[in-house]
Design brief:
By secondary structure, this protein is of the alpha/beta class.
Length: about 475
Amino acid sequence: MHVAFLIIAHMPYLRRAGRHPAGEDALHTLIAQGLLPLVEMLSDLHGTGLAPHIALACSPLLIEQLADPVVQKHFVLWLEDLLARRQAGLQAAEAAGDRHAAYLERFYLEWGRKRLYAFVERLDRALPQKIRELAAAHVIEPLSGAASHAYLPLLSREESVHAQIEQGLLHTTRHLGRPEGLWLPGCGWRPGIEQIVAEVGLRYVVADPSSLPPDQQPRPLWALPRRLAVIFPDEAIARHVWSPELGYPGDPLYRDPNDPRGYLAQSGQPYDPYHALRRAQDHATHFTMALVAEAARRPTNDLLLVLLDAGQIGPRWVEGTTWLQAVLTLCATHGGLTLTTPGTYLRAHKPHETITLGEGSWAAGGHGGWQGAVAEEYWQAIHGAEAQMVHLASLYPSAQAAHERALNQAARELMLAQTSDWSALLSAGDPGDDHTTPWRIYLTRFAQLASIARRARIDDADRFLLEQFEELDGPFRNLNYRVFAP
């Protein structure tokens, strides 16, 4: 049986967002505990001669932030501050005679120093470049995504869907190399997306089994005959990792992710990394044996796609990287399993059937994870801005100089407002603050820029405002507003 691991990673735009509780900490934590250890681990396994093939779907918005010198600088400062606080914690524990606290502080100090050395010395702060190198070595297969991680089925204009997919492909290619496949936020799907995906030259897309007819098995299929394949994650095997009640991350020995000091295990007892990491090895063996048992029930050339989230493996499940390293090692050395990536598998094993996918996502109730009464105002505002952006792109096809910059920045603000995190939070019942909610800020700036773009002459005050917005909201530097033209 062929086994492909797909690791997804995303973070909304947090550049210059400040510090905790509503700032850059989430981005820095994802880098330090999720992506950086993952890249280190894959590099080390590759160096030993193993073939740890995985697929990686970083949202283009996250990749843009990882490549940003400001984000890189702030991450180093954040790590240095973390080390200083751990050093102070060690001194306090030693002064109080608390041997276990001192043991943990030494452990975290060593961990932090290794991450800082890896980021600054091994990677020269260039995490996307290292991912690109691993892609060139066929260790990582990058997937593209919607540019700002927008939830595509609920966008009102095909121009928006096309812009998200095209710009996502452009910026993923720029940073990581040309991808073959597409990961959609939330596996959100509606009919018609397949035509846009095929038009930009992608070969496969990952969808949720809920998009299949009830009697159809979730195996590789054609969404468009011989043009676009569709593959599906295995839901049963993923429960070992994703289920909070039955999955590995809830083990009592593992560190409690809600304890800010990292002193407590999930059982409420003092945390011990030694025993927790041994348990991660045990769970890796159990998971591999579950894969072997599944392989015995399937044809030899079947594909099993394992979906993992970098936001969980490390940030929420601290021992998750150790578990993954052991799983990849065991899979790479087990005769009954073949580690692969989706693109590699599909080149050798073409689908035999064509299917029409229906609407669906990984959330219960179709698109319900991004809809709801609280989210209705958001979607009305987004749809209005989409229509306005399409109109501007049609009205000013040949804008130049400051007018072109204003339109490009308006497109940028719209894309940031379309990030699916905002509708997901609203759907969950979190309306945020009326004035500081990011999507409201982005749409306010969009309206200001649209007004500027319509003026016959852009004065100094307008230029100053434009420069401010370009600095504050600066991903996708090569974005051209004409991508929204009908």
